[in-house]
Amino acid sequence: MIQRHFDEELADLKKKLLHMGSLVQEMIHLAVKGLVEQDESMAKTVFGMENEVNGLHIEIDNIALRLIALHQPMAADLRLLATVVKINSEIERIADLAVNMCESTHFILAKPLVKPLIDLPEMAEIAQKMVSESLKSFTGSDVALAQRVLDEDDRVDDLKDQIFRELLTYMISDPSTIDRAISLILISRNIERIGDHATNIAEDVIYMVQGRDVRHKTKEMEKHKY
Amino acid sequence: MKTPMQNTVLTAEKIDYNGANIAKRFSGHNVMAQRPNNKEVEAVDLSIYYGNTPAVNKVTLPFYKNCITAIIGPSGCGKSTLIKSINRVCEISSKMKVEGEILFKGKNVYDRDVDVVELRRRIGMVFQKPNPFPKSIYDNVAFGPRLHGRYSRKALNELVEHSLRQAALWEEVKDRIQKSALTLSGGQQQRLCIARALAVGPEVLLMDEPCSALDPIATAKIEELVLELKKQYTIILVTHNMQQAARISDYTGFLLMGELIEFEESFILFTTPKEKLTEDYITGRFG
Q1: B279 and A207: CB-CB below 8 Å?
Q2: How many angstroms separate the CA atoms of B260 and B218, rounded?
Q3: All structural domains of chain A
Q4: 3-state secondary structure at position B25
Q5: Is B277 a member of any domain?
Q6: How far apart (Å, rounded) are the C-alpha atoms in residues A88 and A59?
Q7: pTM score > 0.90 for this model?
Q8: How far is it, in rounded angstroms, from Cα A111 to Cα A98?
Q9: Looking at the DSSP assignment, which residues form a beta bridge with residue B41?
Q10: Would you say A178 and A171 are in contact if contact means Cβ atoms under 8 Å apart?
Q11: What is the ipTM of this complex?
């Protein structure tokens, strides 16, 4: 087996992507903690981390593009680089969503909470775990773990619906809660989107490892084993 | 009557601008993409021996009509032997033993009643290094037709022009057609060799590393030409240049030490090869 300089460059690129991934996991954690503990100081840290994520977003894209142009990779190398570029965008979007959550928190904390927060932290925990596991599946080329991430997404979606229904009853019974309730709904929507991005990462990992495209798979397709 | 699923497939194919069908898109390499059923040439259980060692070992490989099929593999893997055995030009230079069959339109080219000269007219060949005859451009192209049949002066002129146009060379040489072919550049000489091969009206074109002696611009011209030619001819291309195989071929076969390791649609072979050996070779890990 020939040792390739290219492999070292790929390993460095993966390392950068994982660093970016750990930053956004911390951002989600802080954004939710800021809301639950009613501590706005978390937001500042999140905003600071977003700058670093944005820098990495551009840097990773540039390195991947350079490797594609100079090495003209094939097969597994090509799939890896295509996946890195896609995951890079997904992670950057997750960072944006964490920032959005902090902004909504700012409005919510201006007045007393509409209701005790129970489902929202649980939902955030699942979404954060999905992000963490999707990145782990990328590092370990672990298709089984990526598949588990895909399965988790339904739970996040269900919790989002539940939160929406509950807050709707609050808004109907007391219209003065509308602004804070809507902010909470927006936060749940942001968390749900984080779950979607983790799902996308997991789908990309399955493509990277097996060359199998599992995106947009309808039940009809599954029935016919396409 | 169509089932609802068949309708879905048709609709999806319409919007699939890459030509990859829906089965392939949704399941990667788990489902075999539909292959054409018109094999112009087919190697069946083909083994070729120089002495006791097989240079090609039990290879079965289809070459579809109007498709470009690339054969890749490291030096000495048997790809040139394989391509040269298709129109039996390898018999000229060396003693060899062939087992198995090469079917051309269903008939084994090694059958006793096959006219080898006629076979080589119908299966033309272009070599690695441009090898024009030390004659005029016109005479190079007219050489084959003069051997194979009697043409009037007018018919021959038309045939030469047509062949040079097909090889995308006419505009560059029409004013110096009687000049020596050796005054042309390497890329032009190679296109002249393609025109010479086309002039005898072949059905299959064998190309043994046709661009390896050419610069990138001449290479690009030949590649464009080959893509144009596949509308009329079946093309079999041996190449060391994997990017070239990926760019222009429809199907690719990977040979290693005389054995066919993998044969697949090129898009699939270069993105998701099934065999580890193919993966190692095309990613440059082979050693």
Answers
A1: no
A2: 30
A3: 5-216 (1.20.58.220)
A4: helix
A5: yes
A6: 10
A7: no
A8: 21
A9: B63, B104
A10: yes
A11: 0.71
